[in-house]
Amino acid sequence: MDAAWNFVRDGEARGPIDGTGLLELYAEGLVDGSCMVWTDGMEAWAPLRDTELGEALPPAAKRQRGAAPSAAPDQALQSEIPGWVAALDQPSLAALFERALFEHLGEVIQWQRELRDALLTSYVSRHPAPEDRDPANYQFSDGFLLESVEDLEDQQQLWEVFGEDNEPVVRRVVAAAAALDRRFCGALQNLALLCRARALLQAATGSARGTEAAPAGSAEGGSNGAHNEPARQLLALLQDEPALPVARDSEGRSLWHDLAAGGQPDLLRLLLPAADGTAVAATATASSAAQPAAAAAAAGGDGSEQAVAVAPAAAGQHPNPLNLPDLKGSTPLHAAAEGCHLEVARLLLGAGASPDVQNRDPSKYAAGDWSVRAQGLECPIPVATLHQTPLHIAAEAGDVGMMQLLVERGALLDLRDSSGSLPLHLALEAQDERAVALLLSAGASPCLSNNDMGEDCTLHKAACAGRPGLLRVLLQAWPAAQRDAAVNAQGGNGWTPLMLAARRGSTDCVCLLLDAGADAAARNAQGKTAADIATVNKREGVVALLHERATASQRGGPAV
């Protein structure tokens, strides 16, 4: 409890504060479990609920309509509000509109009745109601509108009922809320800056080669617009606005996520100096329009010629913004790994991105992430991508170049995802011999299993797949003192790796296992030997091989 904690509240980095004080803020409802916090010794910023304080969280105060009192922005900021509102894209506008409805609607409609009537007209016209939806038959009131907002469950419903094809009214509501609340105004400025930056990013990449992102595995787009006018304007914006490097949208994504996902190495190289850690520190002490400083500790570059200098976080400063996670817990380096953008990953790592941040997304399934991860199931089941590092992602995709880079930069090999899988297990599931060999040569242990393997070991997986190359590298990496036991380990239903290889019909795998000391006489739970299993499955080659080995063993000599 005595540790000094930093936390993000209302768009500002705050602290330090001790653990007891942070828990008191939670109990008062001033922060919640998703509040991003950081203290010395943490690898990355993380939600409060996921830290050591999470178990001590008391029941939070019930959330009430309306924001905590906040002063109105000064006249200079108010003059900027129309421009900021105009710069918002639709997702940012929808996010701020939702916040305005729940925090400031009562105040807004007190002095702008026409906004109340416009919103209620949309509600009675679009929301399920009695057959007669003529607005003239309703008595518009403040209470009616407030109750109508409460009826809607999420941001999508709010937008469909109040916002769709009604943007002028929506923008007026957002502007009115910003004029009332200095903190809301800061959030508006944050998103407006990010929208302006993204428009310049799109123009910069479009000027060079159209607006499509570089495909995975490509040369990543040549110059990628790094030297055109929009790119220079984007660099100037980053340099002039210290809040922009750490600005995030409603999904938690920053400009660095966009650059990494789009495969823009030359543009990233141009802009990376603006991610200097001092920009984050300045943000923490700026005005109320400052942005969240949720970032992770820098892993440090290796000094290669590929690295772009970004100042490390000094004592008292906040960590590198390149490790800023989105709401799924993914950093820009995760995005680079997902897109197989090797040069982008190299630049990020050289600028201090950590290779060991694990993502988190307990509520959603990753697109296209379908795999069998439960014993006994014949059909694929969806699995959420949880607690994966960039190395997990690269191993699952079979991106050996990305894996090599991450391993060279010190990525941890023994971090497990939500299924208990190490990167080695994912490479083994993909039956990628090069990836498995790379991880084993880097020091990954072949002895560890995951949740899905049950009593099986990695040798069972390779033998079941009938992949002699995989089996060979695993046997070579297995500690000699444990190899004999592993070769004859009985997994599910008493099956040994030799039995699985026999069922598969892989004579090469059977040879490797026999040479490594596999016991051909071992029996499974049904009393079957490897030869029995091969016979039932009509694996004549394996039956003949086992017979030859048995005969040679009886004679005391090697098999022919």
How is the secondary structure organized here?
Elements: E1 4-9, E2 12-18, H1 19-27, E3 36-39, E4 46-47, H2 75-87, H3 90-111, H4 113-126, H5 142-151, H6 155-163, H7 167-180, H8 182-209, H9 229-240, H10 255-262, H11 265-271, H12 277-284, H13 332-338, H14 342-350, E5 370-371, E6 381-382, H15 390-397, H16 400-408, H17 423-429, H18 433-441, H19 458-465, H20 468-477, H21 480-487, H22 497-504, H23 507-515, H24 530-536, H25 540-555
Antiparallel strand pairs: 1-2, 1-3, 3-4, 5-6
Helix pairs in contact: 2-7, 2-8, 3-4, 3-6, 3-7, 4-5, 4-6, 7-8, 8-9, 10-13, 13-14, 13-15, 14-16, 15-16, 15-17, 16-18, 17-18, 18-20, 19-20, 19-22, 22-23, 22-24, 23-25, 24-25
Keywords, please?
single chain, 560 residues, mainly alpha, Dna Ligase, domain 1, two-stranded antiparallel ribbon, 6 strands
With strands numbered from the N-terminus, the spatial order across the biggest sheet is 2-1-3-4
- Percent of residues in beta strands? under 5%
How many helices in DSSP terms?
A: 25
Instruction: Outline the low-pLDDT stretches.
Output: 59-65, 209-224, 277-317, 362-384
- The rough form would be described as elongated
Based on helices, strands and strand pairing, what is the structural class?
A: mainly alpha
Overall strand count: 6
End-to-end C-alpha gap = 70 Å
* Domain count: 4
Summarize the amount of helix as a percent range.
40-55%
* Overall pLDDT metric: 79
Main beta-sheet strand count, sense and barrel state: 4 strands, antiparallel
Q: Using only CA atoms, what is the Rg? A: 29 Å
Task: Write a structural description.
InterPro entries: Ankyrin_rpt (IPR002110), Ankyrin_rpt-contain_sf (IPR036770), GYF_2 (IPR025640). This is Ankyrin-2-like isoform X8. Keywords: ANK repeat, Repeat. Pfam families: Ank, Ank_2, GYF_2. The protein is mainly α and about 550 residues long. The chain folds into four domains: about 5-55, 2-Layer Sandwich (Dna Ligase, domain 1); about 75-180, no CATH class; about 185-350, no CATH class; about 480-560, Alpha Horseshoe (Serine Threonine Protein Phosphatase 5, Tetratricopeptide repeat). Helix content is about 50%, strand content about 5%. It is built from 25 helices and six strands. It has helices spanning about 20-25, 75-85, 90-110, 115-125, 140-150, 155-165, 165-180, 180-210, 230-240, 255-260, 265-270, 275-285, 330-340, 340-350, 390-395, 400-410, 425-430, 435-440, 460-465, 470-475, 480-485, 495-505, 505-515, 530-535, 540-555, and strands spanning about 5-10, 10-20, 35-40, 45, 370, 380. The strands form two sheets. It has a four-stranded antiparallel sheet. A two-stranded antiparallel ribbon has the order 5-6. Strand 3 and strand 4 form a beta hairpin. The model is unreliable at about 60-65, about 210-225, about 275-315 and about 360-385 (pLDDT under 50).
